[in-house]
Design brief:
Helix content: 25-40%
Distance between the termini: 23 Å
Order of helices and strands: EEHHHEEEHEHEEH
Largest sheet: 8 strands, mixed
Number of helices: 6
CATH topology of one domain: Aminopeptidase
Oligomer: single chain
Structural class: alpha+beta
Number of strands: 8
Low-confidence stretches: none
Mean pLDDT: 94
CATH architecture of one domain: 3-Layer(aba) Sandwich
CATH class of one domain: Alpha Beta
């Protein structure tokens, strides 16, 4: 998929580059990041990063590197796993530990959801979050997503089965939100 660059008030979302590999390994490789995500391995190696970059080029993916607008510094990732036949996608995001607490994940996720609804014309965007990840659930609520249920003991991470909370929003719901323009 040929991805655009997306600008928000503080961030630039851009396609990943091979030059991002060291930052991916360093930031995604933090145990704290892996612990809050369903799909990031720990330890996270250069090989994981290379495989991710290859996968990010698939037509059913719209994965963006999150960089700070003022410095260009890489700080995380956000993206959509698209199911075009159903006009839906799953949004996912992560931010490196040094950048936590600044609202970057919310701002990037808002931009990705906007891209999904406005540019890709998706009908629905969903998200899955590990039970107990209150920070991520708060982000999804800020996006206007509704809690849709819990998949009990759905994911095994580090040898432990965990519940996964499901959230979703429809394009019509998103369009009716006055807050959807906050990050632009």
């Amino acid at each position: 998929m040929n991805l655009p660059e997306i600008e928000t008030s503080r961030l630039k979302l851009r396609p990943y580059r091979e030059a991002d590999i060291p930052d991916l390994v360093r930031l995604a490789g933090a145990r704290e990041v892996a612990a809050t995500t369903l799909r990031i391995a720990h330890p996270y190696t250069e090989q994981h990063a290379k495989e991710f970059l290859r996968m990010a080029e698939d037509d059913d993916k719209a994965w963006f590197a999150i960089t700070l607008s003022d410095s260009g510094q890489f700080c995380g990732g956000v993206g959509l796993r698209i199911e075009p036949e159903h006009s839906r996608a799953e949004v996912g995001y992560w931010v490196g530990v040094p950048f936590w607490g600044n609202g970057y994940a919310t701002e990037a996720a808002q931009a990705a959801v906007r891209y999904g609804f406005e540019d890709l014309r998706l009908r629905r965007i969903s998200a899955a979050v590990s039970k107990g990840n209150a920070a991520s659930e708060k982000i999804l609520q800020k996006l206007g997503m509704r809690h849709e249920g819990c998949l009990r003991e759905h994911q095994c991470k580090w040898g432990k089965f965990m519940d996964v909370e499901l959230y979703g929003i429809l394009r019509a719901e998103w369009e009716s939100q006055p807050s959807r323009n906050l990050s632009q």
